[in-house]
Amino acid sequence: MARRFATHERREVAALDGIWDFTFLGEADPDAVEVDRIEFDALMAVPGCFDASPAYAGRRGLAAYRIRTDVEAGRQRLVFDGVQHWCRVFWDGELIREHAGGFSRFTAETEADAGTAEIVVLVDNRFDERSPLHMEHFDWYAYGGISRSVELHRLGPVRVEGLRIATASTADRRVSVRIDYAADAPASVPLEIECDGRAVLTETVALDTAGSLDRVLELPWAASWSPEHPNLITVSVRLGEDDLRERFGLREVRTEGARITLNGEPVTLLGVNRHEAHPQFGHTQPEALLVNDVQQLKDLGCNFVRGSHYPLDPLFLDLCDEAGILVWCESIGWQYPVEHLTDPAFIDAQLEHIGEMVAASQNHPSIILWGILNECPSWSDEGHPVYERLLGRLRELDPDRLVTYASINAHDDKCLDLVDVVGANTYPGWYYGDLPDIPGELDRISAHVDALGFADKPLIISEIGAGAVPGWNDSHGSLWTEDYQARHLDTVVGHLLDGQDRISGLAIWVLGDFKTTELRRMALTRPRGVNDKGLIDEYRRPKQAYRVVQGHFRKERSPRAEQA
Ligand code: ADA
User: Lower Cβ count inside 10 Å, N or C end of the chain?
Assistant: First the structure.
């Protein structure tokens, strides 16, 4: 996977990114496809989204990707960082994995003979029961393809399967490490752990065939991680012939009354929502684009970004770790109907997806909040047990971070008892209401959340904004003009930063414009087929509102510098 550091030194890892053979099979039923008879008649970039490429733009159906690679005999593991949104993986014609969900890492394994292996991936971007997590009505265009990196790992008899570094209590410079492992047979092997190149632990361990090792590391020299000082620590775990490297930061996230605290200090979250979409690359995020986005987040004065509405590119998270940007990372979801939410197949798929999200991202110090189910029926009686189960799973997997979700209607929500932080989405002055009403609406939300009995929980406005067609203005400052959007966000941010202290976080909707679903429901409210509430357009060109928000955020984050 494309990261800012090599995740393995000892294990042999080959990047399979590049140009793969490709063919579009359209309406074909994946069960009826004979994999060894597929005729590949085109080429496709991996990572890439085939339906964002000119030849297959907007096509929905089955596609096949193929690559051939030389391997030595032995156990091989393919690591996919994201395939949109359903796939089957074949190794020399044999099915080795099926996966649904897009946006999350999964693996496929096989015992291989020496020689040239042929890997075929059937990828389907249709909306059906194979993909219970994807729905056509989502307010984003669900691109299809092998959208993130692919690697091939050669596995030995002992494997480091995962690493979790718990930095819950960092004052004493001690961290707990859990090393998950697998072994072909019980074994006794050396375990060595290094942090920033210093040996911190060496011992011999007796392994079963699978299990985990829990250790405490003392790092007296290590400095804390914070947005102002994003100090990172690289840890290398070597177990027998295998290894795994990770990066983490010493920091504690908690709530104290209605404030979120970072390393014991209250923090106000100032940021934006961000989709991973681009007109030319779909959900694939070329490195230059990620660097661009992080530069613009910094330039805006943000200390916070909400990943809407699915797990984020691993490289983006690395860059947020380095830039000191705090992250809300959430599982995939957008206004699922009640019936969908109560379908057992859906819940199982969400639980698996949440597990994959946490396993892939749990050591990023930038992530302070885990989220689920954007704008889903948390207002319904049926919703409560589902939210309880999914948020409960997050707490079980990671007790050291805060959990939340973005409520579509905080006035009438039935699941706020389950969160650490209340997230409220609201669109005053856009779909409903008038511009002058914005401060009133924000105050009403706070009062309502408090009246429901949650005055002691931090409250974040997790979405608020207005559309603007890029470059469009008129002398009235009407809806859809850049002028309207700029005045709207000036009012929003101005009100939130001007003396009120109930709302302690803001994620403006949205950093950049992005293509939405082509369903008619969106047509009247999304000119150009684009959700255009971005501070920048889909090619990252700033709109008028960008400077307005930047002015507020920068002033708030460095008041002394401004006064000087
Ligand atoms: C919702 C939703 C966003 C987007 C937004 C809008 O709040 O969570 O994904 O659809 O509305 O633009 O209306």
Answer: C
CA of 135 to the centre of ligand 1 (A): 15
pLDDT band at 559 (very low <50, low <70, confident <90, very high): low
Buried b (16+ CB within 10 A) or exposed e, 206-241: ebeeeeebebebebeebebbbbeebebbebbbbbbe
Element (H, E) at 531: strand 530-531
What is the atom index within ligand 1 of the atom nearest the CA of 531? 12
149 lines ligand 1 (CB under 6 A): no
Q: What is the mean pLDDT of residues 522-550?
A: 95
User: For the segment 282-334, what is each residue's pLDDT rounded down to a tens digit?
Assistant: 999 999 999 999 999 999 999 999 999 999 999 999 999 999 999 999 999 99
In order of their start, the domains of the chain are 12-155 (2.60.120.260), 158-250 (2.60.40.10), 254-563 (3.20.20.80)
CB crowding 121-158: b at 16 or more within 10 Å, else e: bbbbbbbeeebbbbbeebbbbbbbbbbbbbbbbbbbbb
Here the ipTM equals 0.99
Evaluate: CB of 481 within 6 angstroms of ligand 1: no
Indicate the top mutation candidate among 274, 372, 425 to test ligand 1's pocket, ranked by most ligand atoms within 8 A of CB.
425
Write the DSSP string, 150-198: EEEEEE-SEEEEEEEEE-S--TTSEEEEEEEEEESS-EEEEEEEEETTE
Per residue in 354-407, pLDDT (tens digit) is: 999 999 999 999 999 999 999 999 999 999 999 999 999 999 999 999 999 999
Separation CA 481–CA 468 (nearest Å): 5
Pocket residue to mutate for ligand 1, from 509, 517, 535, most atoms within 8 A of Cβ: 509
Ligand 1 pocket mutation, candidates 375, 431, 526, criterion most atoms within 8 A of CB: 375
Cβ 509 under 6 angstroms from ligand 1: yes
Question: Ligand 1 centroid vs 507 CA: distance in angstroms?
Answer: 12
How do residues 395-432 score in pLDDT, each as one tens digit? Answer: 999 999 999 999 999 988 999 999 999 999 999 988 86
At residue 243, what are phi and psi to the nearest 5 degrees? -160, 170
CA of residue 130 to ligand 1 center, whole Å: 25
Mean pLDDT value across residues 26-35: 98
Contacts of 243 (CB under 8 A, 6+ apart): 8, 9, 10, 11, 160, 236, 237
> What is d(CA 116, CA 152) in angstroms, rounded to the nearest whole number?
13
Euclidean distance between CA atoms 68 and 244, whole angstroms? 26
Does ligand 1 come within 6 angstroms of the Cβ of 275?
no
The region, left, alpha or beta by phi > 0 then psi within -120 to 50, assigned to residue 123 is beta
Mean pLDDT of 85-96: 98
